[in-house]
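Running co-folding for adenosine-5'-triphosphate.
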Amino acid sequence: MQNFNLFKLIHPEKRAHPAYICSKIHNTMSEEKSLNFLEEIIENDIAAGTHGGRVHTRFPPEPNGYLHIGHATSICLNFGLAKKYNGKCNLRFDDTNPTTEETEYVESIKNDIRWLGFEWDNELYASDYFDKLYDFAVALIQKGLAYVDDSTAEEIAATKGSTIAPGSNSPYRSRSIEENLLLFEEMRNGKYKDGEKTLRAKIDMAHPNLLLRDPLMYRIKHEHHHRTGGKWCIYPMYDFAHGQSDSIEEITHSICTLEFIHHRPLYNWFIEQLGIFPSRQYEFARRNMTYTVMSKRKLLQLVNENHVSGWDDPRMPTVSGMRRRGYPAEAIRNFCDTIGIAKRENIVDVGLLEFCVREHLNKTTNRVMAVLDPVKLVITNYPEGQTELFDAENNPEDPNGGTRPIPFSRELWIEREDFLEEAPKKFFRLAPGNTVRLKSAYIVNCTGCIKDESGKITEVHATYLPESKSGNDTSGLTVKGTIHWVSIAHAATAEVRLYDRLFRVEDPSNEDGDFKEYINPDSKQILSSVFIEPELAKATPGSRVQFMRKGYFCVDTDSTSNKLVFNRTVTLKDAWAKEQRRG
Ligand code: ATP
Ligand code: MG
Protein backbone atom coordinates (compact mmCIF):
# COMPACT_ATOMS: atom_id res chain seq x y z
CA MET A 1 0.00 0.00 0.00
CA GLN A 2 2.84 2.42 -0.68
CA ASN A 3 0.53 4.80 -2.58
CA PHE A 4 -1.58 5.20 0.47
CA ASN A 5 1.43 6.07 2.60
CA LEU A 6 2.47 8.67 0.10
CA PHE A 7 -0.91 10.34 0.30
CA LYS A 8 -0.58 10.67 4.00
CA LEU A 9 2.57 12.59 3.36
CA ILE A 10 1.00 14.77 0.76
CA HIS A 11 -2.21 15.48 2.59
CA PRO A 12 -2.23 19.08 3.88
CA GLU A 13 -2.54 18.27 7.54
CA LYS A 14 0.34 15.92 7.32
CA ARG A 15 2.41 17.63 4.68
CA ALA A 16 6.05 17.06 5.30
CA HIS A 17 8.99 18.98 3.98
CA PRO A 18 9.34 18.42 0.19
CA ALA A 19 12.86 17.06 0.56
CA TYR A 20 11.51 14.42 2.90
CA ILE A 21 8.72 13.55 0.50
CA CYS A 22 11.26 13.34 -2.32
CA SER A 23 13.39 10.88 -0.39
CA LYS A 24 10.22 8.88 0.21
CA ILE A 25 9.48 8.87 -3.50
CA HIS A 26 12.96 7.60 -4.21
CA ASN A 27 12.31 4.74 -1.87
CA THR A 28 8.88 3.95 -3.22
CA MET A 29 9.89 4.24 -6.87
CA SER A 30 12.32 1.40 -6.49
CA GLU A 31 9.80 -0.83 -4.75
CA GLU A 32 7.40 -3.15 -6.48
CA LYS A 33 4.12 -1.22 -6.75
CA SER A 34 0.98 -2.68 -5.23
CA LEU A 35 -2.37 -2.37 -7.00
CA ASN A 36 -4.46 0.76 -6.59
CA PHE A 37 -8.18 0.39 -5.93
CA LEU A 38 -9.10 0.72 -9.62
CA GLU A 39 -6.59 -1.91 -10.64
CA GLU A 40 -8.07 -4.18 -8.00
CA ILE A 41 -11.57 -3.65 -9.40
CA ILE A 42 -10.39 -4.26 -12.95
CA GLU A 43 -8.48 -7.41 -12.05
CA ASN A 44 -11.53 -8.75 -10.24
CA ASP A 45 -13.68 -7.98 -13.28
CA ILE A 46 -11.24 -9.70 -15.58
CA ALA A 47 -11.13 -12.73 -13.30
CA ALA A 48 -14.94 -12.84 -13.19
CA GLY A 49 -15.18 -12.45 -16.95
CA THR A 50 -17.32 -9.30 -16.67
CA HIS A 51 -17.90 -7.90 -20.18
CA GLY A 52 -15.85 -10.83 -21.44
CA GLY A 53 -12.85 -9.57 -19.45
CA ARG A 54 -12.67 -6.53 -21.70
CA VAL A 55 -11.23 -3.21 -20.42
CA HIS A 56 -12.37 -0.07 -22.19
CA THR A 57 -11.82 3.35 -20.61
CA ARG A 58 -12.22 6.87 -21.92
CA PHE A 59 -10.91 10.35 -21.23
CA PRO A 60 -13.86 12.77 -21.54
CA PRO A 61 -12.78 16.43 -21.57
CA GLU A 62 -15.20 19.24 -22.12
CA PRO A 63 -13.59 21.38 -24.84
CA ASN A 64 -14.00 24.61 -22.91
CA GLY A 65 -10.36 25.28 -22.06
CA TYR A 66 -6.85 23.88 -22.15
CA LEU A 67 -5.82 20.80 -20.21
CA HIS A 68 -4.08 21.24 -16.86
CA ILE A 69 -2.00 19.01 -14.63
CA GLY A 70 -5.18 17.63 -13.00
CA HIS A 71 -6.33 16.42 -16.41
CA ALA A 72 -2.87 14.94 -16.95
CA THR A 73 -3.39 12.65 -13.95
CA SER A 74 -6.73 11.54 -15.40
CA ILE A 75 -5.10 10.95 -18.80
CA CYS A 76 -2.27 8.90 -17.31
CA LEU A 77 -4.84 6.92 -15.35
CA ASN A 78 -7.29 6.18 -18.17
CA PHE A 79 -4.76 5.54 -20.92
CA GLY A 80 -2.44 3.81 -18.45
CA LEU A 81 -5.10 1.32 -17.31
CA ALA A 82 -6.09 0.53 -20.89
CA LYS A 83 -2.47 -0.10 -21.76
CA LYS A 84 -1.77 -2.21 -18.68
CA TYR A 85 -4.77 -4.47 -19.31
CA ASN A 86 -4.52 -4.65 -23.11
CA GLY A 87 -7.68 -2.65 -23.38
CA LYS A 88 -8.77 0.46 -25.25
CA CYS A 89 -9.15 4.09 -24.34
CA ASN A 90 -11.38 6.54 -26.19
CA LEU A 91 -10.95 10.25 -26.37
CA ARG A 92 -14.45 11.63 -26.06
CA PHE A 93 -15.20 15.30 -26.16
CA ASP A 94 -18.11 16.03 -23.86
CA ASP A 95 -19.39 18.84 -26.02
CA THR A 96 -23.02 19.17 -25.01
CA ASN A 97 -22.82 22.84 -24.06
CA PRO A 98 -22.59 25.02 -27.20
CA THR A 99 -22.01 28.21 -25.19
CA THR A 100 -18.48 27.57 -23.98
CA GLU A 101 -16.99 25.15 -26.44
CA GLU A 102 -14.62 25.88 -29.26
CA THR A 103 -12.66 24.04 -31.91
CA GLU A 104 -9.44 25.69 -30.71
CA TYR A 105 -9.82 23.78 -27.45
CA VAL A 106 -10.43 20.49 -29.25
CA GLU A 107 -7.18 20.89 -31.17
CA SER A 108 -5.17 21.89 -28.11
CA ILE A 109 -6.50 18.94 -26.13
CA LYS A 110 -5.54 16.45 -28.86
CA ASN A 111 -2.11 18.01 -29.15
CA ASP A 112 -1.52 17.87 -25.39
CA ILE A 113 -2.58 14.23 -25.04
CA ARG A 114 -0.25 13.20 -27.86
CA TRP A 115 2.56 15.22 -26.36
CA LEU A 116 2.04 13.47 -23.05
CA GLY A 117 2.70 10.26 -24.94
CA PHE A 118 -0.74 8.72 -25.42
CA GLU A 119 -2.83 7.81 -28.45
CA TRP A 120 -6.57 7.18 -28.29
CA ASP A 121 -8.34 4.27 -29.96
CA ASN A 122 -11.33 6.36 -31.09
CA GLU A 123 -11.87 10.08 -31.31
CA LEU A 124 -15.51 10.66 -30.41
CA TYR A 125 -17.86 13.51 -29.58
CA ALA A 126 -20.92 13.49 -27.36
CA SER A 127 -22.44 15.69 -30.06
CA ASP A 128 -22.22 12.69 -32.43
CA TYR A 129 -24.87 11.15 -30.22
CA PHE A 130 -27.37 14.02 -30.36
CA ASP A 131 -29.73 12.00 -32.59
CA LYS A 132 -29.43 8.93 -30.38
CA LEU A 133 -29.91 10.96 -27.22
CA TYR A 134 -33.00 12.54 -28.74
CA ASP A 135 -34.35 9.07 -29.46
CA PHE A 136 -33.54 8.02 -25.87
CA ALA A 137 -35.52 11.01 -24.62
CA VAL A 138 -38.48 10.10 -26.83
CA ALA A 139 -38.28 6.52 -25.54
CA LEU A 140 -38.46 7.74 -21.96
CA ILE A 141 -41.43 9.99 -22.78
CA GLN A 142 -43.15 6.99 -24.34
CA LYS A 143 -42.56 5.00 -21.17
CA GLY A 144 -44.14 7.82 -19.15
CA LEU A 145 -40.76 8.59 -17.60
CA ALA A 146 -40.17 12.10 -18.94
CA TYR A 147 -42.29 15.23 -19.36
CA VAL A 148 -42.12 18.70 -20.81
CA ASP A 149 -42.17 21.38 -18.13
CA ASP A 150 -43.17 25.01 -18.71
CA SER A 151 -41.84 26.12 -15.33
CA THR A 152 -39.11 28.74 -15.28
CA ALA A 153 -35.65 27.93 -13.94
CA GLU A 154 -36.54 29.84 -10.75
CA GLU A 155 -39.77 27.88 -10.30
CA ILE A 156 -37.96 24.60 -10.79
CA ALA A 157 -35.32 25.58 -8.24
CA ALA A 158 -37.99 26.67 -5.77
CA THR A 159 -39.76 23.31 -5.90
CA LYS A 160 -36.61 21.19 -5.54
CA GLY A 161 -36.88 20.94 -1.76
CA SER A 162 -33.73 20.45 0.29
CA THR A 163 -31.74 17.71 1.93
CA ILE A 164 -34.24 17.73 4.79
CA ALA A 165 -37.44 18.58 2.90
CA PRO A 166 -38.99 16.87 -0.13
CA GLY A 167 -39.62 18.83 -3.30
CA SER A 168 -43.03 19.32 -4.86
CA ASN A 169 -44.39 18.16 -8.17
CA SER A 170 -44.48 20.49 -11.13
CA PRO A 171 -48.02 21.37 -12.29
CA TYR A 172 -46.96 20.04 -15.74
CA ARG A 173 -45.85 16.66 -14.43
CA SER A 174 -49.06 14.85 -15.33
CA ARG A 175 -49.15 15.82 -19.01
CA SER A 176 -50.15 12.94 -21.27
CA ILE A 177 -47.56 11.01 -23.23
CA GLU A 178 -49.04 12.31 -26.49
CA GLU A 179 -48.86 15.94 -25.36
CA ASN A 180 -45.28 15.46 -24.17
CA LEU A 181 -44.25 13.89 -27.47
CA LEU A 182 -45.78 16.76 -29.39
CA LEU A 183 -44.29 19.48 -27.19
CA PHE A 184 -40.83 17.90 -27.24
CA GLU A 185 -40.93 17.73 -31.02
CA GLU A 186 -41.98 21.38 -31.12
CA MET A 187 -39.08 22.25 -28.82
CA ARG A 188 -36.76 20.56 -31.26
CA ASN A 189 -38.32 22.35 -34.20
CA GLY A 190 -37.62 25.75 -32.68
CA LYS A 191 -41.13 26.77 -31.75
CA TYR A 192 -40.08 28.02 -28.29
CA LYS A 193 -37.62 30.54 -26.96
CA ASP A 194 -34.67 29.76 -24.67
CA GLY A 195 -35.88 28.82 -21.20
CA GLU A 196 -39.54 28.58 -22.20
CA LYS A 197 -39.69 24.81 -21.76
CA THR A 198 -37.50 21.97 -20.55
CA LEU A 199 -37.68 18.20 -20.67
CA ARG A 200 -37.45 16.53 -17.26
CA ALA A 201 -37.15 12.94 -16.11
CA LYS A 202 -40.12 11.80 -14.06
CA ILE A 203 -38.49 10.12 -11.09
CA ASP A 204 -39.41 11.21 -7.57
CA MET A 205 -39.63 14.72 -6.15
CA ALA A 206 -39.07 13.29 -2.67
CA HIS A 207 -36.00 11.24 -3.59
CA PRO A 208 -33.31 11.46 -0.90
CA ASN A 209 -30.76 12.22 -3.64
CA LEU A 210 -31.68 15.69 -4.94
CA LEU A 211 -30.22 14.89 -8.34
CA LEU A 212 -33.01 12.36 -8.86
CA ARG A 213 -35.80 14.87 -8.17
CA ASP A 214 -37.01 15.11 -11.75
CA PRO A 215 -33.67 16.26 -13.21
CA LEU A 216 -33.53 18.27 -16.44
CA MET A 217 -32.77 16.25 -19.55
CA TYR A 218 -32.99 18.92 -22.26
CA ARG A 219 -32.92 22.71 -22.40
CA ILE A 220 -33.59 25.09 -25.26
CA LYS A 221 -30.57 27.04 -26.52
CA HIS A 222 -30.78 28.77 -29.85
CA GLU A 223 -27.04 28.63 -30.29
CA HIS A 224 -24.48 27.55 -32.84
CA HIS A 225 -22.59 24.39 -31.90
CA HIS A 226 -18.94 23.95 -32.90
CA ARG A 227 -19.74 20.68 -34.69
CA THR A 228 -23.47 20.45 -35.34
CA GLY A 229 -23.78 24.09 -36.37
CA GLY A 230 -27.41 25.22 -36.45
CA LYS A 231 -28.95 21.75 -36.57
CA TRP A 232 -30.14 21.78 -32.98
CA CYS A 233 -31.78 24.34 -30.75
CA ILE A 234 -32.26 21.93 -27.86
CA TYR A 235 -29.25 20.43 -26.13
CA PRO A 236 -29.03 17.50 -23.68
CA MET A 237 -27.89 18.27 -20.15
CA TYR A 238 -24.48 16.86 -19.26
CA ASP A 239 -26.22 14.42 -16.91
CA PHE A 240 -28.42 13.13 -19.69
CA ALA A 241 -25.48 12.72 -22.08
CA HIS A 242 -22.59 11.48 -20.02
CA GLY A 243 -23.76 8.09 -18.80
CA GLN A 244 -25.40 7.22 -22.10
CA SER A 245 -22.30 8.23 -24.05
CA ASP A 246 -20.31 5.76 -21.94
CA SER A 247 -22.98 3.19 -22.62
CA ILE A 248 -23.05 3.82 -26.38
CA GLU A 249 -19.28 3.32 -26.49
CA GLU A 250 -19.56 0.24 -24.25
CA ILE A 251 -17.10 1.68 -21.77
CA THR A 252 -16.44 -0.94 -19.10
CA HIS A 253 -14.81 1.30 -16.49
CA SER A 254 -15.94 4.89 -16.55
CA ILE A 255 -13.54 6.75 -14.27
CA CYS A 256 -14.30 10.25 -13.08
CA THR A 257 -13.69 12.58 -10.19
CA LEU A 258 -15.48 12.44 -6.86
CA GLU A 259 -17.92 15.27 -7.45
CA PHE A 260 -19.85 12.90 -9.73
CA ILE A 261 -20.41 10.27 -7.07
CA HIS A 262 -23.99 11.44 -6.47
CA HIS A 263 -24.67 11.50 -10.21
CA ARG A 264 -23.93 7.82 -10.53
CA PRO A 265 -27.44 6.66 -9.42
CA LEU A 266 -28.94 8.97 -12.03
CA TYR A 267 -26.72 7.62 -14.82
CA ASN A 268 -27.65 4.12 -13.71
CA TRP A 269 -31.34 5.02 -13.68
CA PHE A 270 -31.21 6.24 -17.29
CA ILE A 271 -29.22 3.18 -18.37
CA GLU A 272 -31.65 0.79 -16.66
CA GLN A 273 -34.79 2.48 -17.97
CA LEU A 274 -33.38 2.50 -21.49
CA GLY A 275 -32.04 -1.05 -21.22
CA ILE A 276 -28.69 -0.12 -22.73
CA PHE A 277 -25.10 -1.27 -22.09
CA PRO A 278 -24.39 -1.18 -18.33
CA SER A 279 -21.27 0.96 -18.04
CA ARG A 280 -20.12 1.40 -14.48
CA GLN A 281 -18.68 4.54 -13.01
CA TYR A 282 -15.85 4.70 -10.48
CA GLU A 283 -14.73 7.85 -8.74
CA PHE A 284 -11.33 9.09 -7.60
CA ALA A 285 -10.26 12.31 -5.91
CA ARG A 286 -9.60 15.42 -7.96
CA ARG A 287 -5.98 16.51 -7.90
CA ASN A 288 -5.01 19.93 -6.66
CA MET A 289 -1.56 21.44 -6.47
CA THR A 290 -0.08 24.13 -4.25
CA TYR A 291 0.51 27.72 -5.45
CA THR A 292 -1.88 27.47 -8.36
CA VAL A 293 -5.53 27.16 -9.34
CA MET A 294 -6.82 24.28 -11.37
CA SER A 295 -10.28 25.03 -12.65
CA LYS A 296 -10.56 25.94 -16.32
CA ARG A 297 -12.96 28.72 -15.42
CA LYS A 298 -10.34 30.35 -13.21
CA LEU A 299 -7.54 29.74 -15.67
CA LEU A 300 -9.66 31.38 -18.35
CA GLN A 301 -9.99 34.46 -16.15
CA LEU A 302 -6.22 34.65 -15.80
CA VAL A 303 -5.92 34.54 -19.58
CA ASN A 304 -8.77 36.94 -20.39
CA GLU A 305 -7.70 39.50 -17.82
CA ASN A 306 -4.07 39.38 -18.97
CA HIS A 307 -2.59 38.18 -15.73
CA VAL A 308 -0.65 35.76 -17.93
CA SER A 309 0.33 35.89 -21.59
CA GLY A 310 -2.01 33.04 -22.61
CA TRP A 311 -3.02 29.45 -21.86
CA ASP A 312 0.55 28.41 -22.55
CA ASP A 313 2.21 31.00 -20.33
CA PRO A 314 5.04 29.07 -18.65
CA ARG A 315 3.61 29.92 -15.22
CA MET A 316 0.28 28.25 -15.96
CA PRO A 317 -0.46 24.74 -14.60
CA THR A 318 -1.66 23.81 -18.09
CA VAL A 319 -0.01 21.04 -20.08
CA SER A 320 0.85 23.60 -22.77
CA GLY A 321 2.32 25.98 -20.17
CA MET A 322 4.43 23.26 -18.66
CA ARG A 323 5.59 22.14 -22.10
CA ARG A 324 6.62 25.69 -22.97
CA ARG A 325 8.37 26.02 -19.65
CA GLY A 326 10.46 22.97 -20.50
CA TYR A 327 8.88 20.25 -18.38
CA PRO A 328 9.50 16.92 -20.14
CA ALA A 329 6.42 14.78 -20.76
CA GLU A 330 8.17 11.85 -19.12
CA ALA A 331 8.66 13.84 -15.92
CA ILE A 332 4.97 14.73 -15.85
CA ARG A 333 4.05 11.07 -16.34
CA ASN A 334 6.41 10.11 -13.53
CA PHE A 335 4.79 12.68 -11.30
CA CYS A 336 1.30 11.33 -12.06
CA ASP A 337 2.43 7.76 -11.43
CA THR A 338 4.11 8.75 -8.20
CA ILE A 339 1.11 10.49 -6.70
CA GLY A 340 -1.17 7.68 -7.88
CA ILE A 341 -4.86 7.98 -7.12
CA ALA A 342 -6.77 8.72 -3.95
CA LYS A 343 -10.32 8.57 -2.70
CA ARG A 344 -9.96 11.73 -0.67
CA GLU A 345 -9.46 15.29 -1.97
CA ASN A 346 -5.92 16.46 -1.41
CA ILE A 347 -3.41 19.04 -2.44
CA VAL A 348 -0.06 17.96 -3.79
CA ASP A 349 3.04 20.03 -3.18
CA VAL A 350 4.22 21.54 -6.45
CA GLY A 351 7.73 20.82 -5.13
CA LEU A 352 7.04 17.21 -5.96
CA LEU A 353 6.40 17.96 -9.61
CA GLU A 354 9.53 20.09 -9.73
CA PHE A 355 11.46 17.26 -8.15
CA CYS A 356 10.36 14.91 -10.95
CA VAL A 357 11.31 17.53 -13.54
CA ARG A 358 14.79 18.01 -12.01
CA GLU A 359 15.35 14.27 -11.85
CA HIS A 360 14.70 13.95 -15.54
CA LEU A 361 16.62 17.03 -16.63
CA ASN A 362 19.62 16.10 -14.53
CA LYS A 363 20.01 12.93 -16.59
CA THR A 364 19.25 14.40 -19.97
CA THR A 365 20.49 17.97 -20.34
CA ASN A 366 23.86 19.35 -21.36
CA ARG A 367 25.65 21.62 -18.92
CA VAL A 368 26.43 24.95 -20.50
CA MET A 369 27.65 28.32 -19.30
CA ALA A 370 25.50 31.43 -19.26
CA VAL A 371 26.10 34.60 -17.28
CA LEU A 372 22.83 36.13 -16.14
CA ASP A 373 24.08 39.22 -14.29
CA PRO A 374 27.41 40.01 -15.91
CA VAL A 375 30.51 41.85 -14.76
CA LYS A 376 33.78 41.87 -16.67
CA LEU A 377 36.73 39.76 -15.52
CA VAL A 378 40.14 40.67 -17.01
CA ILE A 379 42.92 38.08 -16.84
CA THR A 380 45.71 40.63 -16.76
CA ASN A 381 48.57 38.19 -17.51
CA TYR A 382 46.78 36.46 -20.41
CA PRO A 383 48.04 37.59 -23.86
CA GLU A 384 45.81 40.11 -25.60
CA GLY A 385 44.24 38.79 -28.79
CA GLN A 386 44.85 35.14 -27.87
CA THR A 387 42.03 32.57 -27.92
CA GLU A 388 42.13 28.99 -26.71
CA LEU A 389 39.45 26.38 -27.32
CA PHE A 390 38.66 24.14 -24.39
CA ASP A 391 36.78 20.90 -24.59
CA ALA A 392 33.91 20.97 -22.14
CA GLU A 393 32.06 17.84 -21.09
CA ASN A 394 28.41 18.07 -22.05
CA ASN A 395 26.85 15.97 -19.34
CA PRO A 396 28.75 14.27 -16.51
CA GLU A 397 25.67 12.06 -15.95
CA ASP A 398 25.88 10.70 -19.48
CA PRO A 399 29.07 8.89 -20.52
CA ASN A 400 28.06 9.23 -24.18
CA GLY A 401 27.22 12.90 -23.83
CA GLY A 402 30.34 14.05 -25.71
CA THR A 403 32.11 17.38 -25.48
CA ARG A 404 31.88 20.79 -27.12
CA PRO A 405 34.44 23.53 -27.73
CA ILE A 406 34.32 26.69 -25.64
CA PRO A 407 36.54 29.66 -26.45
CA PHE A 408 38.61 31.31 -23.72
CA SER A 409 40.25 34.73 -23.91
CA ARG A 410 41.64 37.56 -21.78
CA GLU A 411 38.26 39.20 -21.07
CA LEU A 412 35.38 37.17 -19.69
CA TRP A 413 31.90 37.70 -18.34
CA ILE A 414 31.31 36.33 -14.86
CA GLU A 415 28.35 36.66 -12.50
CA ARG A 416 28.42 39.87 -10.49
CA GLU A 417 27.60 37.88 -7.35
CA ASP A 418 30.75 35.78 -7.83
CA PHE A 419 32.96 38.71 -6.78
CA LEU A 420 33.01 40.47 -3.42
CA GLU A 421 35.49 43.20 -2.63
CA GLU A 422 35.24 42.47 1.04
CA ALA A 423 34.32 38.85 1.44
CA PRO A 424 33.57 36.84 4.55
CA LYS A 425 35.90 33.96 5.37
CA LYS A 426 33.83 31.21 3.79
CA PHE A 427 33.30 32.98 0.48
CA PHE A 428 35.00 30.60 -1.95
CA ARG A 429 34.48 32.69 -5.04
CA LEU A 430 36.41 35.73 -6.28
CA ALA A 431 37.67 38.24 -3.75
CA PRO A 432 41.06 39.97 -3.61
CA GLY A 433 43.59 37.26 -2.72
CA ASN A 434 41.18 34.33 -3.38
CA THR A 435 41.91 31.55 -5.83
CA VAL A 436 39.17 29.85 -7.86
CA ARG A 437 38.89 27.65 -10.92
CA LEU A 438 37.22 28.96 -14.03
CA LYS A 439 35.15 25.94 -15.09
CA SER A 440 36.89 23.82 -17.76
CA ALA A 441 39.75 26.39 -17.96
CA TYR A 442 42.37 27.77 -15.55
CA ILE A 443 42.82 28.54 -11.90
CA VAL A 444 42.94 32.30 -11.37
CA ASN A 445 44.01 34.47 -8.49
CA CYS A 446 41.93 37.59 -7.89
CA THR A 447 43.95 40.78 -7.68
CA GLY A 448 41.28 43.48 -7.27
CA CYS A 449 38.68 45.49 -9.11
CA ILE A 450 37.92 48.83 -10.79
CA LYS A 451 34.90 50.96 -9.90
CA ASP A 452 33.13 53.91 -11.49
CA GLU A 453 32.37 57.22 -9.73
CA SER A 454 29.23 55.77 -8.14
CA GLY A 455 31.19 52.93 -6.60
CA LYS A 456 29.80 50.30 -8.93
CA ILE A 457 32.28 47.60 -9.85
CA THR A 458 33.02 47.69 -13.57
CA GLU A 459 35.93 45.24 -13.82
CA VAL A 460 37.35 42.45 -11.73
CA HIS A 461 41.02 41.63 -12.20
CA ALA A 462 42.84 38.33 -11.84
CA THR A 463 45.94 36.50 -12.99
CA TYR A 464 45.94 32.93 -14.27
CA LEU A 465 48.25 29.99 -13.70
CA PRO A 466 49.19 28.59 -17.13
CA GLU A 467 50.08 25.18 -15.63
CA SER A 468 46.57 24.77 -14.10
CA LYS A 469 44.80 24.03 -17.37
CA SER A 470 41.77 21.84 -16.83
CA GLY A 471 42.45 18.21 -17.71
CA ASN A 472 46.22 18.82 -17.61
CA ASP A 473 46.73 20.52 -14.28
CA THR A 474 50.29 20.33 -12.93
CA SER A 475 49.95 23.25 -10.52
CA GLY A 476 49.39 21.02 -7.49
CA LEU A 477 46.86 23.55 -6.19
CA THR A 478 43.45 22.69 -4.83
CA VAL A 479 40.77 25.35 -4.88
CA LYS A 480 37.45 25.40 -3.07
CA GLY A 481 35.41 27.27 -5.63
CA THR A 482 34.62 26.85 -9.33
CA ILE A 483 32.78 29.56 -11.23
CA HIS A 484 31.32 29.74 -14.72
CA TRP A 485 32.20 32.32 -17.35
CA VAL A 486 31.75 33.27 -21.00
CA SER A 487 34.40 34.84 -23.26
CA ILE A 488 33.31 38.41 -24.02
CA ALA A 489 34.59 38.41 -27.58
CA HIS A 490 32.77 35.19 -28.40
CA ALA A 491 29.58 35.44 -26.35
CA ALA A 492 26.12 35.49 -27.86
CA THR A 493 23.34 37.47 -26.18
CA ALA A 494 20.04 36.01 -25.08
CA GLU A 495 16.94 36.99 -23.16
CA VAL A 496 16.18 34.98 -20.06
CA ARG A 497 12.80 34.75 -18.35
CA LEU A 498 12.83 33.73 -14.72
CA TYR A 499 9.60 32.37 -13.29
CA ASP A 500 8.38 31.99 -9.77
CA ARG A 501 5.12 30.73 -8.30
CA LEU A 502 2.09 32.38 -9.89
CA PHE A 503 0.41 32.78 -6.47
CA ARG A 504 1.73 33.95 -3.12
CA VAL A 505 -0.27 31.46 -1.09
CA GLU A 506 -0.51 27.68 -1.14
CA ASP A 507 -4.19 27.42 -1.94
CA PRO A 508 -5.50 30.65 -3.48
CA SER A 509 -8.97 29.16 -4.07
CA ASN A 510 -9.33 28.60 -0.36
CA GLU A 511 -8.51 32.14 0.80
CA ASP A 512 -10.92 34.96 1.57
CA GLY A 513 -12.00 37.11 -1.36
CA ASP A 514 -11.10 36.68 -5.00
CA PHE A 515 -8.35 34.20 -5.83
CA LYS A 516 -6.71 36.79 -8.08
CA GLU A 517 -5.87 38.97 -5.09
CA TYR A 518 -3.24 36.37 -4.28
CA ILE A 519 -1.35 36.56 -7.55
CA ASN A 520 2.39 36.89 -6.98
CA PRO A 521 3.35 40.25 -8.55
CA ASP A 522 6.96 39.06 -9.00
CA SER A 523 6.31 35.79 -10.75
CA LYS A 524 8.11 36.82 -13.93
CA GLN A 525 11.44 38.57 -14.30
CA ILE A 526 13.02 39.34 -17.66
CA LEU A 527 16.78 39.57 -18.10
CA SER A 528 17.32 41.10 -21.51
CA SER A 529 21.06 40.70 -21.95
CA VAL A 530 22.38 37.44 -20.73
CA PHE A 531 25.63 36.17 -22.22
CA ILE A 532 25.78 32.60 -23.44
CA GLU A 533 28.42 30.34 -24.98
CA PRO A 534 28.59 30.74 -28.76
CA GLU A 535 27.74 27.05 -29.35
CA LEU A 536 24.44 27.56 -27.57
CA ALA A 537 23.30 30.18 -30.05
CA LYS A 538 22.43 27.29 -32.40
CA ALA A 539 19.81 25.88 -30.02
CA THR A 540 16.25 25.62 -31.32
CA PRO A 541 12.93 26.17 -29.54
CA GLY A 542 12.09 23.37 -27.14
CA SER A 543 15.70 22.38 -26.47
CA ARG A 544 16.63 22.08 -22.83
CA VAL A 545 19.93 22.78 -21.07
CA GLN A 546 21.35 23.27 -17.65
CA PHE A 547 22.93 26.66 -17.11
CA MET A 548 25.65 25.61 -14.72
CA ARG A 549 24.94 26.71 -11.15
CA LYS A 550 21.80 28.53 -12.31
CA GLY A 551 19.11 26.02 -13.14
CA TYR A 552 17.46 24.23 -16.03
CA PHE A 553 16.36 26.31 -18.98
CA CYS A 554 14.68 25.76 -22.30
CA VAL A 555 14.51 27.73 -25.52
CA ASP A 556 11.19 29.53 -25.89
CA THR A 557 9.13 29.79 -29.06
CA ASP A 558 9.50 33.59 -28.90
CA SER A 559 13.13 33.18 -30.00
CA THR A 560 14.22 34.79 -33.28
CA SER A 561 17.22 34.09 -35.47
CA ASN A 562 18.91 37.12 -33.86
CA LYS A 563 18.08 36.47 -30.27
CA LEU A 564 17.29 33.37 -28.30
CA VAL A 565 14.82 33.51 -25.44
CA PHE A 566 15.23 31.07 -22.55
CA ASN A 567 12.68 30.12 -19.92
CA ARG A 568 13.89 28.97 -16.57
CA THR A 569 12.23 25.58 -16.20
CA VAL A 570 13.27 25.00 -12.61
CA THR A 571 16.07 25.96 -10.28
CA LEU A 572 18.77 23.43 -9.44
CA LYS A 573 17.61 23.06 -5.87
CA ASP A 574 14.35 23.68 -4.15
CA ALA A 575 15.18 27.26 -3.16
CA TRP A 576 11.57 27.91 -2.23
CA ALA A 577 11.57 25.24 0.47
CA LYS A 578 14.80 26.62 1.84
CA GLU A 579 13.31 30.09 2.04
CA GLN A 580 10.26 28.79 3.86
CA ARG A 581 12.40 27.01 6.39
CA ARG A 582 14.25 30.24 7.07
CA GLY A 583 10.83 31.72 7.75
P1 ATP B 1 -12.29 21.98 -14.58
O1 ATP B 1 -13.07 22.28 -13.35
O2 ATP B 1 -10.84 22.21 -14.43
O3 ATP B 1 -12.86 22.61 -15.78
P2 ATP B 1 -13.56 19.59 -15.37
O4 ATP B 1 -13.74 18.38 -14.53
O5 ATP B 1 -14.75 20.42 -15.65
O6 ATP B 1 -12.39 20.42 -14.74
P3 ATP B 1 -13.38 18.16 -17.79
O7 ATP B 1 -12.95 18.63 -19.12
O8 ATP B 1 -14.82 17.88 -17.59
O9 ATP B 1 -12.90 19.23 -16.73
O10 ATP B 1 -12.51 16.92 -17.32
C1 ATP B 1 -12.13 15.84 -18.12
C2 ATP B 1 -11.70 14.71 -17.22
O11 ATP B 1 -10.60 15.12 -16.43
C3 ATP B 1 -12.81 14.33 -16.27
O12 ATP B 1 -12.91 12.93 -16.22
C4 ATP B 1 -12.39 14.91 -14.96
O13 ATP B 1 -12.91 14.15 -13.91
C5 ATP B 1 -10.87 14.88 -15.05
N1 ATP B 1 -10.28 15.95 -14.24
C6 ATP B 1 -10.53 17.27 -14.35
N2 ATP B 1 -9.87 17.97 -13.41
C7 ATP B 1 -9.17 17.06 -12.68
C8 ATP B 1 -8.29 17.14 -11.56
N3 ATP B 1 -8.00 18.29 -10.99
N4 ATP B 1 -7.75 16.00 -11.10
C9 ATP B 1 -8.05 14.83 -11.67
N5 ATP B 1 -8.86 14.67 -12.72
C10 ATP B 1 -9.43 15.76 -13.23
MG1 MG C 1 -16.48 19.56 -16.51
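Result summary
The two ends are 34 Å apart (CA to CA).
Confidence is low (pLDDT under 50) at residues 1-17.
Job closed.
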